[in-house]
Amino acid sequence: MRLHIRLRTIFGQRCLALLMAIYPGVNDSKLEWPFSKSCTLGVIHPKDKAKRKIHKVDASECSNNPSFQMPKRSCIFFFGDSNFTTTNELEREGFVHADSLHLFLQVEP
């Protein structure tokens, strides 16, 4: 699994997308499919670790989604939040420090 970060301009605002994708691996045949774990991705405040912006995905609630099927080499599907927040909001709320963001991806059973 990989975390993907995208910045793009939408209606004049710089928007941050936080997305995940499941990539093929050598142990895929040993794993249970479709993927059915809960995932949390987000940004952690650099000075107040309890302050976070998060997006949760419970894969068990959308098992028909192609993103959660065993990945194939030729086709990768992304899931997450394509309009997670704006760069202005992150800066205004103090999430940007020294031109850096602290991102995380957590997978739970």
UniProtKB/TrEMBL annotation:
Residues covered by the TRAF1-6 MATH domain: 12-102
Upper lineage: Eukaryota, Metazoa, Ecdysozoa, Arthropoda, Chelicerata
Superkingdom to which the source organism belongs: Eukaryota
Keyword Metal-binding appears in the UniProt entry: no
Coiled-coil region list: none
Cleaved signal peptide residues: none
Protein name stated in the entry: Putative tumor necrosis factor receptor
Nucleotidyltransferase as UniProt keyword: no
Keyword terms, alphabetized: Receptor
